[in-house]
Amino acid sequence: MSRSLLVISRQAPWSGPSAREALDVVLAGGAFDLPIGLLFLDDGVFQLAPAQNAKAVQQKDVTANLQALSLFGIDEVFACSHSLAERGLSAPDSAQPLSSEQISQMIDRYDQVMTL
Amino acid sequence: MSTLHVLSHSPFSDSRLDSCLRLCGAQDAILLCGDATYALQAGSAPFKALEVSALIIFVLAEDAQARGLSLPEWAKSVDYPGFVQLSIDHDKVNSWL
């Protein structure tokens, strides 16, 4: 039985490579059928914001990759409610909002945690 | 299951410490190293937040010493071998990179 991995993505999509790298880790894990979860925390929730335009800053669209998550068998996608509310974002379709208490329990449940 | 949360960024320039404190379980511990040890700056907001958290706080001694920070009674000092031992003693390590 593979050990489960929770990836916590907490950087905004255009601030550097962290957001993309977190997503790459998750997609790679998914390709190998690892039990894997993805949590958007802090500025990471900005990756879920609507109407983003990657072309405006000559970058690739991260949101397209987010939509690929379910194709790779990754269904455990969460967003921190506190971080969403702090930034005036509404709950996205692509991630399940969780309270701080629920996130704390979830970190406990996974075998390994990686924060990027 | 217990998690060791490792912080290495200054609490005055980003939100890692705040978020970590919000998500920490009762069994968990925090290890401050690098610029995260600036949270020991007496009287500051991060200092107070850690003081009232009731969590177990470890501090990498040499990083605190380098910055001229004194250790409050609620924090435990560790060296690098101690850091390794903590990583073994907890079920997992969450490094807030």
Plain-language structure description:
The complex is a heterodimer of chains A (116) and B (97). Chain A is of the alpha/beta class and 116 residues long. Chain A has a single domain (5-115), classed as DsrEFH-like (Hypothetical Protein Ychn, Chain: A, 3-Layer(aba) Sandwich), CATH 3.40.1260. Chain A has helices at 18-31, 62-67, 81-86, 100-109, and strands at residues 5-9, 36-40, 76-80, 96-98, 112-115. Chain A has a five-stranded parallel beta sheet. In chain A, strand 3, helix 3 and strand 4 (96-98) form a beta-alpha-beta unit. Chain A is globular and about 45 Å long. The mean pLDDT of chain A is 90. In chain B, helix 1 links the parallel strand 1 (3-7) and strand 2 (29-32). Chain B has one domain (3-96): DsrEFH-like (Hypothetical Protein Ychn, Chain: A, 3-Layer(aba) Sandwich), CATH 3.40.1260.10. A five-stranded parallel beta sheet of chain B has the order 4-3-2-1-5. The interface between A and B is medium-sized, with 22 and 17 residues.
Give the class-level CATH name of chain A. Answer: Alpha Beta
How do the SSEs of chain A run, as a string of H and E?
A: EHEHEHEHE
CATH architecture of chain A: 3-Layer(aba) Sandwich
CATH class of chain B: Alpha Beta
- Rg of chain A: 13 Å
CATH level 4 superfamily of chain B: DsrEFH-like
Q: Mean of residue pLDDT of chain B? A: 95
Distance between the termini of chain B: 22 Å
Mean pLDDT score of chain A, rounded? 90
C-alpha geometry of chain B: globular
CATH topology of chain A, anyone? Answer: Hypothetical Protein Ychn, Chain: A
Query: Gyration radius of chain B, to the nearest Å?
Result: 12 Å
Low-confidence stretches of chain A: none
- Helical percent range of chain B? 25-40%
Computed structural class of chain B: alpha/beta
Quaternary organization? heterodimer
CATH architecture of chain B: 3-Layer(aba) Sandwich
SS content category of chain A = alpha/beta
Low-pLDDT runs of chain B: none
Family (chain A): Belongs to the DsrF/TusC family.
EC number (chain A): 2.8.1.-
GO molecular function, one term (chain A): transferase activity
Protein name (chain A): Sulfurtransferase complex subunit TusC
